[in-house]
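Example complex used in Figure S2.
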Amino acid sequence: MNSLAPSLLRPARLGPARPRRALPRRTPPLPGTARGAAFRQIALNEARLTWRRPVALIAGVLLPVVLLVIFGELPAFHQALPQLGGLTLFDAYLPVLIVFSLAMLALLGLPIPLVSYRELGVLRRLATTPVPPSWLLAAQALVQLCAAVTALAVIFATAVAAFGMSAPKSPGGLVVSLAASIAGLFPIGLLIAALARTANGASVIGRLAFFPLMFFAGLWLPRALMPGALQDISNYTPLGAAVQAIQDSILQGFPPAAPLLVLAAYAVVFGFLARRFFRWE
Amino acid sequence: MGVPGTAVEVTHLRKTYGPVVAVDDLSFSVAEGEIFGILGPNGAGKTTAIECAIGLRIPDAGTIRLLGLDPRADRAEVREIVGVQLQASALPDRLKVGEILEEYRSFYRHPADVSELTGALGLAGKLGGYYRSLSGGQRQRLSVALALIGRPKIAVLDEMTAGLDPQARRDTWELIEGVRDRGVTIILVTHFMEEAERLCDRVALIDGGRIAALGTPAGLAVQARGGKSVRFLPSAPFDDRLLTELPGVTAVGHEGQHVVVTGTGELVNAVILALAAAGVTARDVRLDSSSLEDAFVKLTGSHLDKEGAAL
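Predicted assembly (592 residues):
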């Protein structure tokens, strides 16, 4: 332990000397550019943490791509099936795997770190600094969003390059559908983060939500093969609606309003609930 | 409010959790550049008081001013000038020390230099190490570093030396004294008596959400026991009146061959001078002054945790 250098820890001067009473109320904590730098630092560390403990990346990015390659290599997946209305199994599974990736990142990748930050007291510590703890949530969501965009890019590139996927019928509709899917799913992850007390708890809730939702997305039984009642239910689940919108954009054209509205409703309701129930400590 | 030279002003603070009154009519003020200690047993309301003072909790009643600012209305400015180290808050295992410091550094307008700060805290060699590889003491010092990295005008440290070994504890005390010498006001919540006696200019003993006593550590100790005592072996017998007539002496007693004198003020000097004037030398002299611990026990009827460990 050295003696302190003279400049160390001298209280920061808050601008030119002026009477204390004249300090403006509600000064922004940092000028705009510095705020940007602070957010970048937080996001950088969140990205490092995600990279160094890559469970979410393996399950949410690598796994769907591996499944896509396996499915794509099976000749049976490339035969048009009358039960699927002339689609191939590959056509049916591509949106399911896209949704698999988004759901993994939203339901498990996003909430587990957030809950562990609350458990560790990181959110509480941030509340004592000029930076609001909500920035950590935003940074974590941004990192998961980047992971999702990466996963989507790799999935589409693989489908096109390796398995001859043709251009989507409605690229604009596809972008809207993917954005709506992310907007509908991330708030569900945030509600899990709000309700779980421990990171383990978040992981359990996330998995309990993931598997039934993936069933309705058609992971075990493509939606086209589901009995009518099951398909009706599927239409109102977030992953079922997401698959419907994405599949329509790829194969038919701009998706109908129904699945997009379902996703928007999930975004609004779960966003509200997450905000309502989120605890910072 | 905002009396010049006053860094912290807490007036009639009250905070309840349902039926439990955590803090009840607490008032104190801390001068700029002072190290102010808050002592008390677990559940005394120390942490609640601190959390209200820095604006993390909304008090039920009372006012708080930090350098004239209201921690809630002037939240942004207060966050900039107050550095806080909270008890029991960890950081992600897989971040490196340097990465954590850079992140927190970016939150402030005029941050401290990372290498100077970590050098002073004995963390310089650890910048590339992961948080999970740090010992308990190193984690604690990192936590103190994060409280100081914004070069605050007021630093609030809750159990900052909990879990440190004696050497690291003394090093941290040196750092805190260095920080204070540069004009930073420090509020120190502690269990650890030696720490309060060594560092604090004034101490508030808190018990049951109220201030049981407030004063300098030495003043409180005297208040508790009514003074100190000198024990010695006289070279020759002498008349007790020689000492009982001295100002400040309250009692003279005998324990075997030893004489025990109790009193206040410059007791040792007075006794030895009086004895010398009578041609008696005092050998084996021991001064027994009551401690802050005694004061605490006497004023609150309970013992503080000896080792300062957070329970």
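Confidence is low (pLDDT under 50) at residues 1-8, 13-27 of chain A. The longest helix of chain A spans residues 134-163.
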